[in-house]
Amino acid sequence: MTLGVLAITGGTGFVGSTVIRLAVEAGWQVKALARKAQADHAGVTWIAGSLDQPASLASLMEGADAVLHIAGVTNATNKAAFIAGNMEGTAATIAAATLAGVRRFIHVSSLSAREPQLSDYGWSKAEAEKLVRASCLDWTMVRPPAIYGPGDIDHLDLFKAAKLGIIPLPPKGRISEIEVSDLARLLLALATDQTSIHATYEADDGRAGGWTHEEFARAIGTAMGRSVWPLHLPAAIVKLGAKGDRLLRGAKAKLTPDRAAYFCHPDWVIDPANRPPEGLWAPQVTTPEGLKATAEAYRKAGWL
After folding, report:
1. What span, in angstroms and rounded, lies between the C-alpha atoms of 5 and 112?
2. Residue 303, CA distances (Å) to 153, 172, 248, 294 in order
3. How far apart are the two ends of the chain, measured CA to CA in Å?
4. What pLDDT, in 10s, does the model give residues 259-292?
5. Residue 103 pLDDT class (50, 70, 90 cuts)
6. pTM of this prediction exceeds 0.90
7. Looking at the domain assignment, is residue 220 inside a domain?
8. b/e code 116-155 from CB counts within 10 Å (16+ = b)
9. Under a CB-based contact definition with an 8 Å cutoff, are residues 195 and 273 in contact?
C-alpha cells in the first residue's frame, strides 16, 4: 500500500538518505531534491536543483502530500552561508509548499536553536524556526540533539581518537544523542500525524538526563573495544584548536570557531517535557548498540 508522496529536501545527506531508505520501505513514493545526478533508486524520483531554484522547488512540491525539510547548513566559514542555507533556503521551501497547496510541513531544526546567542549556526536555525511558525502551513518542528550513526562524519573524529586511547573533550557538560534511523522514524511518523500540528519536539535516545561528555566518550571507547582516557580541555584551548583545525583542513574543518562556541556550552540535553508523545514515537536504538554499529560501519567503509 502506498502511503502517498513525500517531498524531501536534503535527501542526499546523512539524515536525508536514511529517511529516504526507510520511507520507501514503509510504502512512500519519494520526491527528493538533488544538486547532482543520483543513482536510480526504486520508489524515488530525483528532482534536479537546489533550494535557491524556484522551478526545482515547484517540481519537488507537485503532487506531494507532505514535506520533510531536512536540508540545511551545519558547518560554514561565515555567517552569510548559514543565512543562505538555513534561513533563505527555509523561506524558499515554505513558499514553494504554500504555492503548491502542500499543507503538512515537517521542519528539521536543531537543539542549538535553543541558545541562538552562542553561534551563527544556532542563530540561523532559530531564525528559520520563526519563518516556519509565521507560515500558514500545518507545521511541526523537530529539534534533534547530536545525531550519530553509520555514515556520520561529525562523530568520526571521536572514534578515531578512541582508537588512539585518548578522546579530547570540551569543558564538563551534558549532551543528548539520537541515532539517525530513530530520527528518521520520527520524521516519517510526523508526516501522517495530525495531532502534532504546531508542536516543537526535542527527541533523543531516551536516556534520562542525557550523557556527560565523559560517559559518552567511554561509550565510544567500548564500541571500539578500547579503554579510553576522556580528556576535558579548557574552553580557550578548544577555541584555539578550532583555529588550528581551520589551518590544517581549511573548509573541511570539523571543529570551527562557530562550533567551538556551542560545544563548550554545558547543557545540550533535551527537555523531557518536549519529547514526542510515546504513542507517536519512541527510540528503538540504544546508544551503546548504535555506537557499536557505527564503529562497524566506519571500519567497513575504511574510515578507521
Report:
1. 30
2. 9, 28, 19, 11
3. 41
4. 888 899 999 999 999 999 999 999 999 999 999 9
5. very high
6. yes
7. no
8. bebbbbbbbbbbbbebbeebebebbbbbbbbbbbbbbeeb
9. no
* CATH of residue 58: 3.40.50.720
Amino acid letter, 134: A
- Measuring CA to CA, which residue among 134, 114, 130, 126 is closest to residue 82? 126
Residue 44: phi and psi, rounded to 5, are: -125, 130
Give the number of domains in the chain: 1
Contact 76, 82 (CB under 8 A): yes
Backbone φ and ψ of 48, nearest 5°: -70, 130
Range of the domain at 50: 4-151+177-206+270-283
Cell numbers of 76, please? 560554514
Amino acid at site 170: P
Neighbours of 91 (CB within 10 A): 17
pLDDT in the model for residue 253? 66
31-42 burial string, b = 16+ CB within 10 Å, else e?
bbbbeeeeeeee
Looking at the domain assignment, is residue 139 inside a domain? yes
CA dist., res. 247 & res. 49, Å (int): 32
For residue 268, give Cα distances in angstroms to 71, 115, 202: 22, 10, 11
